[in-house]
Write a structure and sequence with these properties.
The structure holds two protein chains of two kinds. By secondary structure, chain A is of the alpha+beta class. Chain A is built from 21 helices and 25 strands. In chain A, the strands form seven sheets. In chain A, strands 12, 15, 16, 17, 20, 21, 22 and 23 form an eight-stranded mixed β-sheet that branches. In chain A, strands 5-4-6-8-7 form a five-stranded antiparallel β-sheet, with helices on one face. Chain B is built from 15 helices and no strands. Classes of the chains: A alpha+beta, B mainly alpha.
Chain lengths: 725, 325
């Protein structure tokens, strides 16, 4: 058989190349069937009243008794309904009823059981009761736990592995049901806070206040041990004095002390109702193996329900068809009307049908998808800051022309947070044992560390230098300045003054007056990596202004936590986000009995000042008013003089919104604001189509490039074959 | 053959015990159960009682390696290490610290990992071998030098650069494909194309150079000379004879990683938002979820051992002289 390999193989090679080329570009060509190729959402989602957002970390818990992190509350806040909520528009932050008929009726009782007047001093109050009445007719979202057969028996009770064979997710249950919300559901949730099975993060705190919660926990620990590990721990039979139903729609919470801030907790999902049927349903055999539990499939009465829960990819919230109804607020601040925040006044909530949250761990894809119109809002990372924001000569933040052309809006708000550098007051050099010398040393360092510079370099101006513990937006905050550090607003005392204080502290020119040894201080941190390195270098430079040698003791987060708990750190950086808008939630960070070392409290500096502590107790029980303000002023003054913290800064949150997204007003306390959002989805569709037209010329260039590579190879091949022939 | 398998399984057992022991030791050198509890309970309002309850609930209240409250054999067996290891060897991965069933998560997440890793592996292998053989085909010419320089250049660039460049040009600038994410069913292909393309391109430099070295060793052998003497074209010599005879070292590198494709790629999955096992492992390390870390390391070891076994078997398939004994 004659065979001419070279010619034959040349044809095969040419054919292979063509096939390769087609197979490479075919999927792209197929993708181009629609107008927009890079749309990450299914085609059928187009033109829907859906909000698109991101989550950067997989939530760990969606059980209201356990979820605390902001990335968890972002979901639970929309699904569960505690008795109260914050008004969306009013400032200062104002509580209003959510599922209740009115605000709780608060009554005070003496130790002998007599009712006291609201003005009674805190020390006289032995018990406080909160009488809460919920609105009748509120119903839970559709859920298989409520599904019943014609006989009235629960449809999905007594399930086993065989019965669950075809079940992979909650949506695989064909039947659902609902039932009315009752006061018992709130009681059940409060009992859940004490359950040893749940480890609620607020149990420790609440057991100090809610009457009998601690005893209930001890009782439940014993009961839980007697039950199989996965068996349902039915909490209904266990009565305790702290929470009791007083009717089908009313209940009473009893505190064993005076804690006026408790009312703010009633606006958090920890106090949202949980139906016992859901717990019973989820503890059936085979459910846990399918990740079907209350932690992943919540059951609430809120405006949304979790219709798709793939925490590894996306979570979808859909409108709850059984939602009891609520209207958009009709009043707010004066400028709200001008900003269009009252355009939807009185309209029925929620204003969107669905919200899709996509997991985005990396900044680059997240930012680009926002610019392509696939996310409705975005934060601004340091890497993208210059692309998005520019500062006017007056220092006002504004959007760049690129952002303005897209119609993007900038929303800023000073957060109710404080970031500070603390001194361990147990330390002999910088703390209480050092006496007056240590106080002057702390004051000198407070002057030397230039937080204005820090904010400018590392935060792109996104923060305001703190003058005390309280951030703006919290009662007690005053727009004044810390006279220990500043001579006038924004004007820091000179380094010479700081050096003078340092000399008075016994360290002239950064050396001990007694021994002549250089002053060496230690900064404990868990921050590592290039970003942290530049910040730490900056910090060393700040201390070197006073000729103080700052040694960085970098360690991992666990070791750092241990050091803090044992009181072994010297200087450290820490922060605090408000749980609720009350000064108590910040000033308790320096309350002596709340020390971290030895007491496991939140006073990380281990600051102790009997006068401060006395004023704190007094202030804690007071209503907001002139008298409370005066006490807070005195406490602030003490802290400025004692300088247990370098007050640091209050971060400023910058976020961007596309033009089609409405009703955005920063509310740093509320976590259920999704229901107020408005989306002009038709405008979004138009913009997406405009912004994402595929670019064709790279195809042609790729083709030419391929030819440019293949052609010399082909020529060489022909040459070699001819030479062989 | 069966004896060979049994022997390999017996060899694997102490290896897995060792891997498990090292994982356990390393994890608890840098973490304590108290720290794990603190991370899971959050940083606010965490009491010592809550930490104790969390540990008891998750089984971390037991001694790690030695139970001094027990005597004799029980002092070793009634420990966290033995308890966890026993379950692991029966492939009972248990629950993650956030309560999710690990086996189910693995089953769910291995498919997206495979959806990226398998095509990237197959296409990458084909492209690398083709490049390697073509460079050999043009050996001694300028094309060979250009090819080798190109491969070294490709090899010298960080993998992260390919990802960012791919996302920038293909997804952002030219807007051909979604920049990240994952879809269900047939819709997934739009999300797979870019990571696969990036994985293939980023692997060409090192892959093609490696295969070139292998094939260059073959090209000087007698059978190649014989094939040429018979009048076969150079392409046929390379793609039929040299490729077949160079398969043993190729298989050594390729088959061993085959089972590991299940575990996915840490960086690629993270950047492209692929919900696979790579990102699962990274997340577990970040959140100090020991149950997942232990399960994934164990699974990775088992798959690696399977990979080695498959490699041995593949030798017998491509080279009849090799026998399993």
């Amino acid at each position: 058989m004659n065979y001419t390999p070279s010619r034959y193989e040349g044809l095969v090679h040419y054919g292979t190349m063509r096939l390769w080329f087609i197979s490479l570009f075919l999927p792209v060509l197929l993708a181009g069937c629609g107008e927009v190729w890079n749309n990450p959402y299914p085609h059928e989602d187009s033109g829907q009243n859906t909000l698109y957002s991101v989550f950067e970390e997989r939530p760990k818990h969606l059980d209201p008794a356990r979820s605390y992190s902001s990335n968890e509350v972002e979901f639970t806040g929309q699904i569960y309904e505690p008795p109260l909520q914050y008004h969306f528009l009013k400032r200062p932050y104002t509580l209003e009823p959510l599922t209740t008929a009115g605000l709780p009726v608060v009554r005070y009782w003496s130790s002998d059981g007599h009712e006291l007047s609201p003005e009674a001093p805190a020390y006289a109050i032995a018990r406080t009761t909160y009488d809460i009445s919920i609105k009748p007719g509120i119903r839970y979202q559709p859920h298989p736990a409520f599904a019943v057969e014609e006989s009235g028996q629960p449809r999905y009770l007594g399930l086993n592995e065989q019965g669950l064979a075809s079940i992979n997710t909650l949506g695989d249950f064909v039947y659902t049901g609902t039932r009315e919300l009752t006061a018992e559901d709130y009681i059940y949730e409060i009992k859940r806070l004490a359950s040893p099975r749940l480890n609620s993060p607020i149990f420790g705190l609440m057991s100090e206040y809610i009457d009998g919660l601690d005893e209930l926990n001890r009782q439940l620990v014993v009961v839980a041990k007697s039950l199989p590990r996965d068996a349902w721990l039915d909490l209904r039979p266990y009565e305790f004095p702290g929470a009791k139903a007083t009717g089908r729609y009313s209940f009473r919470i009893t505190l064993k002390t005076h804690y006026p801030q408790f009312i703010y907790w009633l606006a958090m999902p920890f106090f949202a109702p949980v139906p016992w049927e859901a717990e019973r349903f989820y503890t059936q055999p085979g459910m846990a193996e399918r990740n079907l539990n209350l932690d992943w499939f919540p059951v609430g009465t809120g405006p949304f329900m979790l219709s798709e829960n793939d925490p590894n990819r996306r979570m979808v919230m859909a409108r709850n068809p059984n939602f009891h109804g609520e209207n958009y607020p009709t009043e707010g601040e004066i400028e709200d009307s001008k900003k269009g925040l009252l355009t939807d006044a009185g309209k029925s909530l929620p204003l969107i049908d669905r919200a899709v949250f996509t997991l985005e761990k990396e900044e680059i894809p997240q930012w680009n998808k926002f610019l392509q119109g696939y996310y409705d809002a975005s934060g601004i990372s340091s890497d993208n800051f210059d692309q998005a924001v520019q500062f006017s000569p007056e220092g006002e933040a504004d959007l760049t022309s690129e952002m303005k052309e897209k119609g993007i809006r900038l929303v800023t708000a000073v957060t109710t947070s404080s970031s500070y550098m603390g001194f361990n007051m147990k330390d002999p050099v910088v703390g209480h044992p050092g006496g007056e010398s240590a106080r002057k040393l702390r004051q000198a360092i407070s002057i030397a560390v230039d937080y204005e510079e820090y904010i400018s370099i590392f935060l792109n101006g996104r923060g305001i230098p703190a003058q005390g513990v309280l951030p703006p937006g919290i009662f007690g905050y005053k727009d004044d300045f810390n006279s220990v550090v500043y001579t006038s607003p924004g004007k820091r005392r000179s380094i010479e003054e700081a050096r003078r204080l340092l000399a008075e502290a016994g360290y002239p020119n950064g050396r001990s007056a007694k021994t002549g040894e250089p002053l060496v201080l230690y900064f404990d941190t868990s921050a590592t990596g290039p970003d942290a390195k530049s910040r730490l270098d900056w910090l060393i430079k700040q201390f070197s202004k006073l000729d103080i040698q700052l040694v960085i003791r970098a360690t991992d987060y666990n070791r750092f936590q241990d050091k803090m708990l044992q009181g072994n750190a010297q200087i450290f950086q820490w922060g605090w986000n408000a749980d609720y808008p009350d000064p108590e939630n910040f000033l308790f960070l320096l309350y002596g009995p709340n020390a971290k070392a030895g007491r496991n409290g939140e006073n990380a500096a281990n600051y102790t000042n009997p006068e401060f502590d006395r004023l704190f107790v007094q202030m804690k029980g007071m209503a907001n008013g002139q008298q409370r303000q005066e006490i807070i002023d005195r406490m602030t003054l003490m802290l400025r003089e004692d300088a247990p913290w370098l007050f640091g800064f209050h971060p400023k949150a910058f976020s961007l919104q596309h033009a089609w997204m409405g009703n955005v007003k920063p509310n740093l306390m509320a976590n259920n604001t999704l229901k107020y959002r408005r989306i002009d989805f038709l405008q979004r569709e138009r913009k997406r189509a405009d912004w994402n037209k595929p670019v064709f010329w790279p195809f042609v260039v790729s083709l030419l490039l391929l030819v440019a590579i293949v052609w010399p190879a082909w020529r060489q091949y022909r040459k070699q074959e001819e030479a062989r022939a | 053959m069966i004896r060979y398998f049994l022997r390999r399984v017996l060899y694997a057992f102490p290896i897995l015990v060792g891997v498990n022991l090292i994982t356990f030791f390393l994890f608890f050198v840098v973490n304590t159960p108290d720290n794990m509890a603190r991370i899971h309970l959050g940083v606010k309002h965490v009491t010592p009682e809550a930490i104790q309850q969390w540990k008891a609930e998750h089984g971390y209240d037991r001694p790690l390696f030695l139970n001094r409250e027990r005597s004799g054999f029980d002092s070793v067996t009634d420990t966290l290490f033995v308890d966890r290891s026993q379950k692991l060897f029966s492939f009972d991965f248990g629950k993650a610290d956030d309560g999710r069933d690990i086996a189910r998560d693995i089953k769910t997440r291995m498919w997206p990992s495979l959806a990226i890793a398998l095509p990237a592996f197959i296409v990458g292998l084909m492209v690398n071998i083709t490049f390697a053989l073509l460079i050999i085909f043009y050996r001694g010419t300028r094309l060979e030098y250009a090819g080798v320089v190109g491969l070294i250049a490709l090899m010298s660039i960080s993998g992260l650069f390919y990802i960012i460049a791919g996302q920038y040009f293909i997804a952002k600038l030219w807007q051909w494909l979604p920049i990240s994410g994952f879809g269900e069913g047939i819709n997934a292909y739009r999300f797979i194309l870019l990571p696969v393309l990036v994985s293939v391109v980023s692997g060409i430099g090192s892959g093609a150079r490696w295969y070139r070295t292998i094939f260059l060793e073959e090209i000087g052998k007698d059978y190649v000379r014989t094939a040429r003497a018979k009048g076969l074209s150079e392409l046929r010599v390379l793609f039929r004879h040299v490729l077949k005879n160079g398969m043993i070292p190729v298989l050594t590198g390729a088959v061993v990683v085959l089972p590991l494709l299940f575990t996915g790629s840490l960086v690629t999955e993270s950047f492209f938002g692929i919900p696979g096992l790579g990102s699962y492992t990274i997340d577990a390390i970040r959140s100090q979820d020991f149950a997942i870390v232990q399960a994934m390391v164990f699974l990775g070891s088992v798959l690696y051992i399977i990979g080695l076994l498959l490699t041995d078997i593949s030798y017998t398939l491509v080279d009849p002289r090799v026998k399993l004994s």
